[in-house]
Design brief:
alpha+beta; 8-stranded mixed beta sheet; 6-stranded antiparallel beta sheet; 7 helices; elongated
Length: 478
């Protein structure tokens, strides 16, 4: 289907996102294809589905955002989400484990002429529903259960057979397997005064089609007045749980702030959170983390690209020496080669030193299997464990047996350590620029970088909660 403002683009992603559709301002998708419907319904069966809608609904209208039916022709409703700008209500309906239809009715200011992002997440037994990052519903429901069906029928923007169509604009509909709220709404507002009413109905066999194809039941004034006290108690219990969670988050944040204010103690004095204290004599540094833990390690250095970095006296980080130009070629400082028989050349800080070696000066070997490398004068032992006999490798490198001797290799070939393997230096990943962080995975949003030998860690800032190894989000709302 060609891309235009009057048609949809249905995008299939093979990872976590099941389907996503971007609608024009005045046209909405209707019936999903069989493959799309089956994939979407499987997420319901697995109880790990999140639906996102971005809508601008016309005034004084009632419409269906999504509806799911059992079979190709059956009118048996399995799930639906409807909105109304007549009474500013959102209705979530699903067929429960007991085969009854359960309805949650929530209030939202849908008739304000603004766009509304509605997210419904069903994860396990938990139902979450938010509108423009305002949490309207969050509770456990043991009746949340969806059975596998062979041919589910999914409508977007209408109930069924062009009935109860959504009137307005829908610029996004997407279905995902994970809850997007923590990323979309890092500062989710808890609507403590939003009362949620529930209703359970078991339609008779002959009444199911009429009940399903008709518009969703709207709570009347008499029904609202007769809401039983059990619902009120359940509502208050849910609100108390939300308040407890919010207070627990505030308490955790206060504890982290207190740790930040206390800092870390070192050598009889206090250093603040994030502060570093270096000892240039021993080439060590200590850093205070956001949890009050003190990390003391060798000083990290900027990574150098030369093959043989040189550590000058009195310094903690090495530097690159000059290359040599010999016979039309450039050689790294520290490079050794044998251009002709018994002639050894060595590049030393821009100066190439070549010397003739005599065979009579070769050491006496006790091994039985010996071989002289090309152009060299002295034989070496072969078929032995060179790493066990004479290991020249740094403790942060791996010793590998080569034909004529030991060969060092890094434990962290991309980052962590650098050098020639005989001497290894720690890379300070915390001084990476933004490009390096993006390419190599450095610490990002809401974190503080702590350098470790051969690695690094990203501590969350006070009041932030970990999103992954590299990012933290401010999820505490006061």
């Amino acid at each position: 289907m060609a891309r235009s403002r009057t048609k949809f683009e249905l995008i299939w992603l093979l990872s976590t996102v099941v389907l996503s559709t971007v609608a024009s301002e005045n046209h909405l998708p209707s019936l999903l294809s069989g493959v799309q419907a089956r994939n979407l319904w499987q997420l319901f069966v697995d109880r790990r589905v999140a639906l996102q809608f971005d809508i601008l609904q016309d005034d004084n209208t009632e419409g269906t955002l999504i509806s799911v039916f059992q079979g190709r022709t059956s009118s048996r409703l399995l799930f639906s989400l409807t909105t109304s700008t007549v009474n500013n209500k959102i209705l979530l309906r699903f067929r429960s484990a007991s085969d009854s239809l359960k309805t949650y009715t929530l209030s939202a200011p849908l008739n304000d002429g603004q766009w509304h992002k509605i997210i419904v997440s069903l994860q396990g037994n938990r139902i979450d529903l938010s509108e423009n990052c305002h949490q309207l519903l969050s509770k456990e429901d043991d009746e949340l259960h969806f059975r596998s069906v062979h041919h589910p029928r999914v409508y977007v923007g209408q109930q069924a057979h062009h009935h109860n169509k959504f009137q307005g604009k829908m610029r996004e509909f997407s279905a995902d397997s994970s809850n997007p709220v923590p990323i979309r709404c890092p500062n989710l507002d808890l609507m403590l005064d939003n009362f949620v009413s529930t209703k359970t109905e078991t339609p008779h066999e002959g009444e199911q089609e009429q009940a399903v194809d008709s518009a969703p039941d709207q709570p009347t004034s008499s029904a609202t007045e007769n809401i039983n006290w059990n619902e009120h108690v359940s509502f208050m219990e849910d609100q108390i749980k939300q308040v407890k969670l919010m207070l627990q988050g505030v308490d955790n944040r206060l504890k982290k702030v207190e740790l930040h204010q206390r800092g870390c103690q070192i050598a009889g004095k206090i250093i603040s959170f994030g502060e570093k204290q270096q000892d240039p004599l021993n080439c060590t540094e200590c850093q205070c983390s956001s949890t009050g833990e003190l990390f003391c390690n060798p000083i990290g250095c900027p990574k150098l690209e030369c093959a043989h970095p040189v550590l000058s006296p009195g310094k903690c980080c090495p530097e690159c020496h000059n290359q040599c130009f010999y016979n039309g070629q450039h050689y790294e400082h520290g490079h050794e080669f044998w251009p002709k028989q018994c002639v050894r050349c060595f590049c030393s800080n821009g100066r190439m030193d070549c010397q003739f070696r005599r065979a009579e000066h070769c050491p006496v070997l006790s091994c039985t299997e010996q071989e002289t490398p090309a152009n060299q004068c002295c034989p070496v032992c072969t078929n032995i464990d060179h790493c066990a006999e004479n290991n020249p490798c740094d403790r942060n490198a791996i010793c590998e047996n080569d034909t004529y001797g030991a060969k060092p290799a890094f434990r962290f070939p991309f980052w962590g350590f650098f050098g020639n393997g005989t001497l290894c230096y720690d890379v300070d990943e915390c001084i990476w620029d933004e490009n390096a962080k993006e390419q190599l995975g450095g610490c990002q949003l809401g974190t503080m970088c702590i350098n470790l030998p051969g690695a690094f860690k990203c501590d969350c800032l006070p009041g932030y909660q970990r999103l992954d190894d590299r990012n933290c989000l401010d999820v505490i709302r006061i």
